[in-house]
Write a structure and sequence with these properties.
Radius of gyration: 24 Å
Number of strands: 32
Mean pLDDT: 94
Helix content: 10-25%
Largest sheet: 8 strands, parallel
Shape: globular
Strand content: 25-35%
Structural class: alpha/beta
Low-confidence stretches: none
């Protein structure tokens, strides 16, 4: 097995420190089907494991070096590491990008962390557990493959993939890494752009209050070589907020605003000083972008904007949920843009931050969506609420994200039509999301059975052109659509003039690979595929009531063959021909 570091790029692009140590690569690994590890105290680190795995790939994937898709819900990891000598005297943080689902971490036999949630990051200060020379980290990862109340997204609870459900991911599936910090350091930044006032609000958070010391932060903001500004302020608490005017900011040709057409980004350096001495330096960035609804229209930077989105599930043939490389994440965006899409709905997956970084850099709208459970319980409510808050916290600064989707197609709330508890939970997820982020739109239950929502969204896989033209010809007929025999609005929710978007449609199966599978409708050859694609797209572009679309889907995924690209990212028709279809004129 190779010992090279897999996925070597910096894993946290919105908060970059110069010094860090990537712990990806070869780890010892063990299945614990008989649940012996706890009793035998494997966490102490003395127990060697019999297998090797390539982190950050889950054992089910080929890239892990194991490729076993059977149920193994309890697994263990072990590896040694040495802290660089130049980090001596500093605090050492151990970071995990994502571990599915519950993770317990020991360093040199000391328990340092426990985390629930398969898609969100966590870290621990391991300084007190360290020793000179080699150190041993052990991770116990427990999944609950058959639990249908667990927030898991598209991971199937049965043995083999089927229908719209795919291979499971268990254990570490994003980067593991170390970084050194001083006694006082910056834990996070939050950027809130205001294009109307030409200001950026920056909230800076420290790990602790200054406690009588003179603590200052210097913020330097740059835009290419054209503009720079800086400010210095003092801390009296562990959080300070400053609004900085971007005085030469103007709207001539959209100025420096962030859009998919012109993804302008400002670079930020923030330096923390204690008694005048630098103790922490971070690099970050922000985009000046505004997403709102006005007079029933979706507005990007105060202008009516039609969203041409692609459903993107973020699966890869050899890595499952983990992209084989940073370039693969970037390529998915480049291919989608080449087909005429200005964004993606990341479906049932809280995506790797590196994808969001490339969306920010390349200009690509993203709908951030929770990985849902399938059934309702009080424990589900606790778990999904906690993980969704962590997802919003992690991704708040990315200008590419314009819409949050906490629930999709009543997953987790299957009886929302009549169950008051499930209705209240959906409302709570909507309002909680709004309470954490007032700058973005929120869809309470994408596809059907919406409660309070900023956008009314419909999933419609009809494939006959004449049916779609008729169905979306008037507002009354559009709202009367019965997606999957469900109501568009439930719980006494009335339509209040929100923009209407069709956020899943198409799904045309066209077999152009070795995969056997299915889709929502079918095509015989490339010519037939392009004709049927045109027939399902144009009615929505011509409807005066549809203000955005999301086609299903970017790629084939396992047995699903309804992608515009095969699973290994080969176009099923010329990209320019697909672009012509999706970039047709919009009728308002």
């Amino acid at each position: 097995m190779t010992t090279e570091v897999m996925r070597p790029e910096y894993p946290r692009p919105q908060l970059v420190r110069e010094q860090w140590l990537n712990l990806n690569g070869a780890w010892e690994f063990e299945f614990d089907d008989d649940r012996m590890g706890d009793g035998e105290q494997w966490g102490l680190g003395a127990q060697g494991f019999s297998k090797k795995i390539q982190v950050p790939f889950a054992y089910q994937s080929k890239l892990s070096g194991i490729g076993d898709t059977d149920f193994h819900d309890l697994v263990w990891y072990r590896r040694s590491f040495t802290v660089p000598a130049e980090w001596t005297g500093r605090q050492i943080l151990l970071h995990f990008g994502a571990v599915d689902y519950a993770a317990t971490v020991w360093v040199n036999g000391h328990k340092v962390a426990f985390h629930e949630g398969g898609h969100t990051p966590f870290h621990a200060d391991i300084t007190s557990a360290l020793r000179s020379g080699d150190n041993v980290v052990v991770v116990r990862a427990e999944d609950f493959s058959r639990d249908v109340t667990l927030p898991r997204g598209k991971q199937y609870w049965k043995e083999n993939s089927a229908s719209i459900f795919y291979t499971r991911t268990t254990g570490i599936w994003q980067t593991v890494w170390l970084e050194p910090v001083n006694e006082l350091y910056i834990t996070k930044l939050k950027f809130k752009p205001d294009i109307d006032r030409n200001e950026i609000q920056i909230r800076t958070f420290l790990n602790q209050a200054p406690a009588g010391r003179k603590v200052e932060a210097r913020i330097d903001i740059r835009f290419k070589n054209e503009y720079s500004t800086s400010t210095t302020f003092s801390f009296t608490h562990a959080e300070e907020t400053r609004s900085i005017g971007l005085h030469d900011f103007n709207d001539h040709g959209l100025g420096r605003w962030w859009t998919p057409h012109k993804p302008n980004l400002y670079d930020v350096t923030i330096t923390l000083l204690v008694d005048g001495k630098p103790v922490d330096t971070l690099e970050s960035y922000f985009g000046m972008r505004k997403i709102t609804v006005e007079a029933g229209k979706v507005m990007l930077n105060n202008r009516v904007y039609f969203m041409r989105l692609i459903l993107d599930q973020g699966y890869f043939p050899d890595g499952i949920l983990t992209a084989p490389s940073d370039e693969a994440l970037k390529q998915d965006i480049e291919l989608a843009k080449a087909m005429g899409f200005n964004g993606a709905r990341k479906h049932q997956k809280i995506e790797d931050p590196r994808f969001l970084y490339w969306a920010d850099k390349l200009g690509y709208l993203v709908w951030g969506e929770m990985a849902n459970a399938y059934s309702y319980s009080e424990d589900y409510v606790r778990k999904v609420t906690q993980e969704w808050q962590e997802a919003i916290e992690r991704d708040y600064n990315h200008p590419c994200i314009v819409v949050w989707v906490p629930i999709n197609e009543s997953w987790g709330v299957p009886n929302i039509l009549v169950d008051k508890r499930q209705q209240q939970h959906t409302l709570a997820m909507y309002h909680m999301t709004k309470s954490l982020d007032e700058t973005r739109l929120v869809v309470s239950n994408d596809g059907w059975e919406n409660m309070s929502t900023d956008l009314v969204t419909i999933h419609d896989y009809a494939w006959k052109r004449e049916d779609l033209e008729e169905r979306y010809s008037t507002l009354e007929k559009t709202l009367g659509t019965k997606p999957h025999r469900r109501e568009v609005l439930v719980g006494g929710t009335a339509y209040e003039g929100q923009p209407i978007l069709v956020t899943e449609f198409g799904g045309i199966a066209f077999k152009k690979s070795d995969w056997e599978g299915w889709g929502y409708s079918g095509a015989e050859n490339e010519e037939d595929f392009l004709k049927k694609l045109h027939d399902v797209v144009e009615p929505f572009l011509q409807s005066p009531y549809v203000q955005g679309i999301c086609y299903t889907q970017l790629t084939d995924v396992e047995q699903e063959i309804n992608g515009l690209l095969t699973y290994d990212r080969v176009p099923k028709a010329p990209l320019e021909e697909i672009k012509k279809i999706f970039n047709g004129p919009v009728k308002y």
